[in-house]
Amino acid sequence: MTKIPVNEPMIGGNAVKYVAECVKSGWVSSEGRFIGEFEEAWASFCGGQTGVAVNSGTAALEIAMAALELEPGSEVILPSYTIISCAMAVIAAGGVPVLVDCEADTWCMDVNAVAEKITSRTRAIMPVHIFGHPMDMDPLMELADKHGLAVIEDAAEAHGAEYKGKRVGAIGDMGCFSFYANKIVTSGEGGMVVTRDGTYIERLAYLRNMCFRSDRRFRHTELGRNFRMTNLQAAIGLSQAEAVENHIEIKRRMGTAYGERLGDEPRLALPVERDWAKNVYWMYGIVLGDEVPFDAEEFARRLEAQGIATRPFFLGMHEQPVLRDRGLFKGESYPVSERIARRGLYLPSGLTLTEEQIERVCEAVTAVLDRA
Ligand SMILES: *Cc1c(COP(=O)(O)O)cnc(C)c1O
Question: Which of 86, 214, 324, 341 minimizes the number of CB atoms within 10 Å of its CB?
């Protein structure tokens, strides 16, 4: 029995040609034509933005937060249910992460719970478009406008996902993407911040390159980072950005195929697509109903025995030892995030997944549930 992996990259198109050009020409580090071309291609795909490429999605979040120039102790609102990169970026910028629970069906931050978290110290909000489904942005942008808050979107899982016809990442003040190998568009490792704001663009480019100044090289007035993307990474990234529409179509077909086979299964909650949303199904997550007598960890073990690889859901930020050890989130509870962390996992969702493999995964899922 061959194992079905959770996610394998599918790197085709011009990737080999572009990488060969880097190697043959010697442009292998952070100068060369592909960096600018990738920034341009990705930012315009997002809708009239300008892009600043960096070497990971985490780096993108970090310089986006740094570009806000927060006063120490400024609060940034983000969902508990996300990857730790979000909280790391807030803390690295001198901010204090303030959490909001997620919705039970989209698994994105519950916009109705944001207002009560706004204080006189709040400076920004970081919505995260979870597993390819956009967060409900209109009410969030309204709150941000009303209180003068910056909005930094984490769109690392939602390349090409749409909110009311607008691509995510281009709705807030800045949008952050990851191009890690398991993302919908990859550059191996990589990331990008997209924005329309000229001041941010300049600041982001400065921060990613050690805050070099143009007036006197090697004289620095601020501490920056080396988050530069290489031309080699950008060569792969550009080739994959050229294929993004195809990748999205494959993911959406996968979402439909799983939905058709598991839609009648009352013991599972499946991904949803709000009527204002275009979900790009980065990962096909499922959550076990209360009637299932085991948790996601045991479910994963039983699927593994059938040759099906899965991954657990995120563990909420308020349950992270490293953050609690810093005195954060004392006595706080986010029940939806806690529940899905224990009851959720994602099924094989790679771009190379075949219809037959989806069939096999669904048969295994149903069989494991029936034997519960
Ligand atoms: C993958 C991911 C990141 C981090 O991206 P890296 O390129 O791995 O640093 C950030 N946010 C979310 C929501 C992600 O899924």
Answer: 214
